[in-house]
Design a protein that fits this description.
104 residues; mainly alpha; Helix Hairpins; 3 helices; 75% helix; elongated
């Protein structure tokens, strides 16, 4: 017999994922790649919360917000990786303190 997780257990798990993303942002502010991955963790946790609440409440509004967040996450990843590649090709580092040197 499989035990299904309760809503509280799932929300607690997603809250832990969210705070892992927040701690990644605050603990490592120098590496752009880690910063982008932490932002993706934040967006993933919010998406999982929306889909879980949608599944438990039989309301489709959470899925609409999830699609919007996935669109924003894809755009953020594309722009962030483009900046990362440009920064690495110019400075041979992904340290954020050199990002202001890209102004031209």
């Amino acid at each position: 017999m499989l035990l299904s997780p309760t809503l509280n257990n799932l929300l607690l798990l997603f809250l832990v994922i969210f705070f892992l993303g927040v701690s990644g942002i605050y603990l490592n502010r120098k590496n752009l790649l880690v910063l982008l991955m932490s932002i993706e963790l934040l967006l993933l946790a919010v998406n999982l919360i929306f889909t879980t609440i949608t599944a438990y409440s039989d309301d489709l509004s959470g899925l609409i917000f999830t699609l919007i967040i996935i669109t924003v996450a894809a755009a953020e990843s594309a722009i962030g990786l483009a900046i990362l590649v440009n920064l690495y090709s110019l400075r041979k580092t992904v340290n954020i303190q050199y990002i202001n040197l890209m102004k031209g």
